[in-house]
Amino acid sequence: MIPVSVAIITKNEEKNITDALESVKEFDDIVIVDSFSSDRTSEICRIYTERVFQHEWQGYSKQKQMAVDLARNEWVLILDADERVTPELKEEIKSSVSGSSCSGFYIPRKSFFLGKWIRHSGWWPDHVLRLFRKDSGRLYDRHVHEKVMLKGKAGHLRNPLIHIAYRTIGEFIDKADRYSTLAAMELKKDRRHVNPISLIFRPVITFFRIFIIRQGFRDGVNGLILSLLYSYYTFLKYVKVWEK
User: Fold this and answer.
1) Which of its termini does the chain have fewer beta carbons within 10 Å around, N or C?
2) Is 36 helix (H, G, I), strand (E, B) or coil?
3) Please, is 97 exposed, middle or buried when counting C-beta atoms within 10 Å of its C-beta (0-12, 13-18, 19+)?
4) Are 28 and 73 in contact (CB under 8 A)?
5) DSSP track, 121-137
6) What averages of pLDDT result for each successive group of 10 residues across the chain (244 residues)?
């Protein structure tokens, strides 16, 4: 068994959670914090671990920090329900945490959109700090796009984490609505103001950055669709700030 705790938060993830848990079943501690799922998520989780805790939703960072706090091991890996740990990454994690002088590790994330690996568009290699010593890392408290704040040196792993980002356009639009609301709250907290000009130009700038600067055009039709969808998300985010 791999001496690393896996921390996962869930809410109605029955279509994703089995593959995620299958990919980490060799880890000796799996902690699930579930926000009272109404589907079979909790039932499926209990097949893989007895450490399933129910807690009302308190935001992404606080929910994940709760899962980290419940971890039993020195090292913790944060995993989302739509992510999978490959056999190669498991071996690298196992060897990296043994006697390492690092406090944490960035892991490249290989993301799929509409069934295609997105190699450009700012999505690859998308290094994320997910593996860290429990006493050295803490989730930065924010509404959305939460990240780990690390005390100490961070290393980089070579093998990627698989991310099944969006299987359909509808999934992106649903998540864009939720995330844009949270992002608008962050912008309001930072006292950001929005005028009609920014509602026009910020989505255009987003499209240009993803499709041209980050070479989304090299991802073909998927890159074009992704660039347009992120422009839509940007518009939602700023128009919700204006609305408030």
Assistant:
1) N
2) coil
3) buried
4) yes
5) TT-SS--EEEEEETTTE
6) 97 97 98 97 98 96 97 98 98 94 97 97 96 96 86 97 96 95 86 84 97 98 98 95 86
